[in-house]
Write a structure and sequence with these properties.
Elements lengths: L7 H52 L14 E3 L39 E6 L6 E7 L9 H4 L22 E4 L4
Antiparallel strand pairs: 1-2, 2-3, 3-4
Length: 177
Amino acid sequence: MSKRGFTLIELIVVIAIISLLSAIMVPSVQSILMKGRDARRKADLNAIQLALESHFDDNGFYPQSGCGWDCHGFKYSTAGAQWIPEITNYLRGGVVPVDPLNNAAGPWNSGSYSYAYGNVGRITYRSSYDLTAQLENTQDKDRCGVKCYKWYFNNRAWCGACGGGFSNQIFEIGPMT
């Protein structure tokens, strides 16, 4: 009488093959997820930018930063879904997007993921703002290390690669012109 089933060697070979495939696939999946979060960050900031422009069209100014206008202050998405309450009626569902990870008040340093809105000019400085996020993909063509974003109040570089003190992974957009 013959028994049907797998031998111990066959089971070990199958487990080894599955382990090898998993080791190959996990980094690919992580890279896809990271790039997907970065794509969402860019889309979110573009939606916020459109809402800010609509607010400007209706009111003649952008909403205040965390310290008012013409100052070096920010509002952060870690404050919750209404972190820029003045633009909620310009956004689908009335909710201001937040970063997919949203783990730190300020996207200035590596590993700190949130959105920041600030440096809002109105009286002393021209009407403008900075809308910022931290990207995960170190090869992204839109990151500060490639684009060399600058503070518009004083024209100083943001990121280390360009002479500033913050992460090279910052992504920034401002008013549509």
